[in-house]
Write a structure and sequence with these properties.
484 residues; alpha/beta; Elongation Factor Tu (Ef-tu), domain 3; Immunoglobulin-like; 3 domains; 8-stranded parallel β-barrel; 7-stranded antiparallel beta sheet; 25 strands
Length: 484
């Protein structure tokens, strides 16, 4: 039986149109995704946000409303109705594409009513430092869900279910307010002293009733949607003990192992590996350090040492837990973590995640389909070719040629299971050049061509299995067996 290189696609970007048609488009696109070799599709948050159909999904209002109830000004979410969501999942699963759902359990937004609560104003830059004595504030913390009522759950949220908020409605003042008698969780990221609080009403995951309700919701959600995995939002802000227990409970309820990847946004590999240990290895993590290495390489005017592109990355230190990516909805222009990889470097970066053996690579919707809102075209033609090469040819032993600070390459020598497999990749962040790479004796006398079309010459493999593979200035060339 032939094996396949697994590949994920993040099937959304921040500026998708608010037309409630995304789930329909996804279902229509499923054959195309299958043909590309996409095995996992990461979908945006599917529940009602505080902005209704204008909400990307991270301003969570009601986890139980998947586009079914008239709340926040609309029945559908930004992406469509519950029925369309379930249908898209079923269509993808019928094509053996696993569906990864985006889960946001850190905060809630868009409360139905305010409550008067005693709270202490905190220093935004050092959350361990109080700026005031406890005093009454008016906090948006009551969630009654009048549009849904008690359907699926009769749990109603109030201030006791949260740690704090970022708005006092009585004085119309934005600040960080910790509720009197509450404490930020300890086992969270240490940025800003304690990074428990992120936004909105911060959910108290030490509250027994809250944990029970979120566990019940997780079981309900998995039973209803039948998704295959979860993308966990903002895990650096959530105590590290929470997810191992929560995931075990919800996985047991459906009697299957989920594919789980967390978003721990840090460029520090020690911090990321520490979280993997603290969370008992219950999830994979996105390789944020690699993203920032790409950014440095692309914006250093050729000064970045390409031999170090994988230094300090998750795919280097813990490849079995790494989900590699180039950009995502948070790094795109205009967003909170803006760190957009320039277009010229995108083919190089994608070659480094799609054509190598380690990590699960994730292709960003905005890179493939473009971002019309920002007038940005997609690179689907190049990505089509790289995905095809990954699917058909990226097998066998991998040998690196990281010997020049600007010009690097690697060879995949192919295997007997995959006809014509084997690929040579050469790239530079500065001047054109060539690297002599060994493809193995089985390729002696064969000819290779650059499938990206950047180099027109043909490379002949000598009797020892060696070939001189080139690339142009600031470019990548991907060499496969010449078609006869």
């Amino acid at each position: 039986m032939k094996t396949q290189n697994n590949t994920m696609m993040q099937y959304f970007e921040w500026y998708l149109p608010n037309d409630t048609k995304h789930w329909e488009r996804l279902a229509e696109d499923s054959d195309h995704l299958k043909n590309l070799g996409i095995n996992y599709v990461w979908l945006p948050p599917a529940y009602k946000g505080s902005g209704g159909k204008n909400d990307v999904g991270y301003g969570v209002y009601d986890l139980y409303d998947l586009g079914e109830f008239d709340q926040k000004g609309s029945v559908p979410t930004k992406y469509g109705t519950k029925e369309e969501y379930i249908n898209a999942i079923e269509v993808l699963k019928a094509k053996n594409i696993k569906v990864i759902a985006d889960i946001v359990l850190n905060h809630k937004m868009g409360a139905d009513e305010t409550e008067e609560v005693l709270a202490i104003q905190e220093n935004a830059d050092n959350r361990n430092e109080s700026m005031s004595e406890a005093r009454p504030i008016k906090a948006w913390t009551k969630y009654n869900f009048p549009g849904r009522g008690n359907t699926y759950s009769d749990f109603k949220w109030n201030w006791t279910h949260f740690h704090g908020v970022d708005w006092d409605d009585s004085t119309e003042t934005a600040s960080i307010y910790k509720f009197y008698g509450k404490h930020w969780d300890e086992n969270v990221d240490k940025e800003k002293g304690n990074f428990d609080y992120l936004m909105g009403a911060d959910i108290d995951l030490n509250n027994y009733d809250v944990v029970a309700e979120l566990t019940n919701w997780g079981k309900w959600y998995l039973a209803v949607t039948q998704v295959d995995g979860l993308r966990l939002d903002a895990v650096k802000h959530i105590r590290s003990e929470f997810f191992p227990e929560w995931l075990k409970d919800v996985e047991d309820s459906v009697n299957k192992d989920l594919f789980v990847v967390g978003e721990y946004w840090s460029a520090n590999i020690d911090t990321i590996n520490h979280y993997l240990e603290q969370s008992k290895g219950c999830m994979n993590l996105f390789d944020v350090p690699l993203h920032y290495n790409f950014l440095k390489a692309a914006t250093s005017n050729g000064e970045f040492d390409m031999r170090t592109i994988f230094d300090g990355t998750l795919v280097q230190s813990n490849p079995q837990k790494a989900v590699t990516f180039v950009d995502n909805h948070d790094t795109q222009i205009g967003q909170a973590l803006e760190s957009w990889i320039p277009d010229w470097f995108k083919p190089i970066a994608y070659s480094l995640i799609l054509l190598r053996k380690d990590g699960l690579p994730c292709v960003f919707y905005g890179d493939y389909y473009g971002i019309p809102e920002k007038g940005m075209a997609g690179q689907n033609e190049i990505l089509d070719e790289l995905l095809k090469v990954r699917k058909l040819y990226c097998y066998g032993e991998q040998q690196d040629y990281f010997e020049n600070e600007d010009l690097i390459g690697f060879a995949r020598k192919g295997d007997f299971e995959h006809e014509n497999s084997g690929v040579a990749v050469v790239m530079t962040n500065e001047k054109a050049g060539s690297i002599c790479m060994n493809m193995g004796m089985d390729f002696a006398g064969k000819e290779f061509q650059d499938c990206l079309g950047n180099i027109q010459e043909i490379v002949a493999i000598d009797e020892n299995g060696n070939g001189e593979f080139k690339c142009q200035d600031g470019s990548v060339s991907v060499w496969i067996l010449k078609k006869t």
